[in-house]
Design goal:
Blueprint (H helix, E strand, L loop, with lengths): L4 H33 L7 H10 L3 H7 L2 E6 L7 E6 L34 H12 L1 E7 L6 H9 L4 E5 L3 H4 L9 H13 L6 H9 L5 H4 L1 H8 L19 H11 L2 E6 L9 H4 L4 E9 L2 H13 L14 H19 L9 E5 H6 L1 H12 L5 H10 L6 H5 L8 H6 L1 H4 L2 H10 L1 H6 L8 H5 L15
Parallel strand pairs: 3-5, 3-6, 4-5, 6-7
Antiparallel strand pairs: 1-2
GO molecular function, one term: N-acetylglucosamine 6-O-sulfotransferase activity
Enzyme class: transferase
Family: Belongs to the sulfotransferase 1 family.
C-alpha cells in the first residue's frame, strides 16, 4: 500500500511507461516481421480488378452474376426487392400451340448483358403498324362453334363486330353481288371502315330481319339505337338517314380499335391474301375447325328439330357432305402447312374443342394475335357462358352461346350410332389425323363418355 499520495502517483506513472514501451516494442517487431515476410508489390491489372470487384455492393454483384433486380410497389412493402435469375428469351407459344410459324431466328441461348439501344428503324416500324387498321376474321363451317368464338371478339368494348356479312351478298336482290370479287370488296370495306363502295350491301345487311344483326352485333346495335324512334310501335331496325349513312358507319367503326368478322360462307382462305398484303391493314385470320363427327351430328339435330337454315342438309350421314366438310378443313390449312409467307404472323388455327376446354387461355391468345389488350368484359362473358345454362330455353337453343364445354364436345357420341361414326371416320381419315382427333374403334368406346377423346394439344402439334 502506498504511504503517501505522492508515492502512489510515482508508481502509477512508472507502470504506464513500462506498458507503453512494451506495446511499442511488440508493434515494431510485428511490423518488421511482416515487412520482410510479405514484401510490397505494385498491383497488376488482375489484382486491381479483383480489388475493384471487392468494393462492389452486394446488389451489383448479383446483377453481374446474371440476376434481374426489380422493385415492386406493394401496399405492405413499397420498396420490396425481388431477385429473379436472368431468363432467356422464350419463343412465343402462339407460334407453336396456336398456329403461326416457328421463327428460326429466335434462340433460347442467353445473351450477354448489354444496354439495348432503340434503333430508329424499329421506332418508325412501330409507328407504321400503329397507323394500320386492325381487323380479324373467324373463318369456319356451319355448326363448328363460330357463334361462340365470334362472341369472344364481339364482347370486347373496342370491337366493331360483323356477324355473317357474306350473307348480304348471297341473298341480295342484285345477284351480281354474289361473287368472289364482291366478297373481297366487302371484306376490304368492313376491315378499313370504308363503306361508300359497299353502301347498298350495308343497307341491306343492317335492315334485313332474317339475319338478326341487332341481336348479334353489340356495337352496331348501339349505333342504330341512337336513330330509333322509341315513341313509335315499330322504331325501325337501323333507321340511319340516307344522307348520313356511310358517315355514321365510318365514324362509329373508327371509334373502335379493331374490326372483327365471323363467317361460315367462305370456302377458300387464299381470298384473304390481298388483305394480308394491304399496306393499310393489319389483317389476321383465325381458322376454326371442329371434330367432323360433331359437325355432322349437330347438323342432323337441326334437321330433326325442323330448324331450317339451309336446303343442303341431310337427315342421315351423307358421304358427300362428310367429304366436303373434311376437304374444307385440310384444303384451307394447306397454305399454312406450306408456310406461305403471306400468312406469317397473321394466322391462327384452333380447334373448337380446345376453346371449350380452356376458354380463358384461348381468349388470351386471340388478343395476343391481334395485339389488342384484353378486356374484363370478355372474361366475365366467358365465365357466364361456359357453364350449364339454367333456363331450358337456353339449353335447347341450337344457336345459343351458353354451353357446357365438356358436354358439347361429347354430345355427338350420344347422337350418332357406331355405324354412322364409322362412315364419317372412313371419309375423314386425313383430316382427323391432321387435327389429332382420336378414332373410335368400338360401340363401347363410343358410348363411354367417361373416357375423353380430346386432350390439349402438345406445344408443337401444328
Amino acid at each position: 500500500m502506498c504511504r503517501t499520495m505522492h508515492m502512489c502517483r510515482k508508481l502509477l506513472l512508472l507502470n504506464l511507461r513500462k506498458i507503453l514501451l512494451l506495446v511499442l516494442f511488440v508493434g515494431t517487431s510485428t511490423y518488421t516481421y511482416l515487412a520482410f515476410t510479405f514484401p510490397y508489390e505494385e498491383p497488376n491489372d488482375g489484382k486491381m480488378l479483383r480489388m475493384l470487384q471487392d468494393v462492389r455492393s452486394p446488389l451489383e454483384k448479383l446483377e453481374d452474376a446474371g440476376y434481374n433486380l426489380e422493385r415492386l410497389q406493394d401496399q405492405e412493402s413499397p420498396s420490396k426487392l425481388v431477385i429473379r435469375p436472368e431468363q432467356p428469351e422464350e419463343i412465343d407459344p402462339l407460334e407453336f400451340i396456336f398456329g403461326g410459324f416457328e421463327d428460326k431466328s429466335v434462340t433460347t441461348t442467353p445473351q450477354p448483358r448489354t444496354k439495348k439501344k432503340a434503333a430508329p428503324l424499329a421506332v418508325s416500324k412501330q409507328t407504321e403498324v400503329a397507323t394500320k387498321r386492325t381487323a380479324v376474321i373467324v373463318m369456319t363451317q356451319m355448326r363448328s362453334g363460330s357463334t361462340f368464338v365470334g362472341e369472344i371478339f364481339n364482347q370486347h368494348p373496342d370491337a366493331f363486330y360483323f356477324f355473317e356479312p357474306i350473307w348480304a351478298l348471297e341473298y341480295n336482290k342484285n345477284k351480281a353481288y354474289n361473287s368472289t370479287a364482291w366478297q373481297l370488296k366487302l371484306l376490304e370495306g368492313l376491315s378499313k371502315c370504308k363503306f361508300e363502295p359497299i353502301r347498298d350491301i350495308m343497307q341491306f345487311y343492317l335492315t334485313t330481319k332474317e339475319l338478326g344483326v341487332m341481336k348479334t352485333c353489340r356495337a352496331i346495335d348501339s349505333m342504330c339505337d341512337r336513330y330509333r324512334n322509341k315513341t313509335r310501335k315499330w322504331p325501325g331496325r337501323c333507321p340511319i338517314p340516307d344522307d348520313k349513312f356511310t358517315e355514321v358507319l365510318q365514324t362509329n367503326c373508327l371509334k373502335n380499335k379493331f374490326t372483327a368478322i365471323k363467317t361460315i360462307r367462305l370456302n377458300d382462305i387464299t381470298l384473304f391474301k390481298p388483305l394480308t398484303e394491304d399496306e393499310e391493314l393489319n389483317f389476321k385470320i383465325v381458322q376454326l375447325v371442329r371434330d367432323p363427327r360433331a359437325i355432322i351430328a349437330s347438323r342432323l339435330a337441326l334437321v330433326k328439330n325442323n330448324v331450317s337454315v339451309t336446303n343442303h342438309l341431310h337427315n342421315d350421314v351423307d358421304r358427300s357432305e362428310v367429304r366436303t366438310v373434311c376437304d374444307w378443313m385440310t384444303t384451307n390449312m394447306q397454305p399454312y402447312r406450306d408456310q406461305s409467307e403471306w400468312l406469317r404472323k397473321r394466322y391462327a388455327l384452333v380447334r373448337y374443342e380446345d376453346v371449350g376446354l380452356d376458354p380463358m387461355t384461348t381468349m388470351a391468345r386471340f388478343y395476343k394475335l391481334i395485339n389488342i389488350p384484353m378486356s374484363r368484359d370478355v372474361s366475365k362473358w366467358l365465365g357466364s357462358h361456359t357453364k350449364k345454362a339454367k333456363r331450358m330455353k337456353d339449353r335447347k337453343d341450337p344457336f345459343g352461346t351458353k354451353k357446357d364445354p365438356e358436354k358439347t364436345a361429347n354430345e355427338w357420341r350420344t347422337r350418332l350410332s357406331f355405324k354412322q361414326v364409322q362412315i364419317i371416320q372412313s371419309e375423314c381419315k386425313e383430316a382427323m389425323t391432321l387435327f389429332h382427333y382420336k378414332f373410335v374403334e368400338s360401340h363401347e368406346e363410343l358410348k363411354n363418355i367417361d373416357v375423353s377423346l380430346y386432350q390439349k394439344r402438345p406445344p408443337q402439334l401444328f
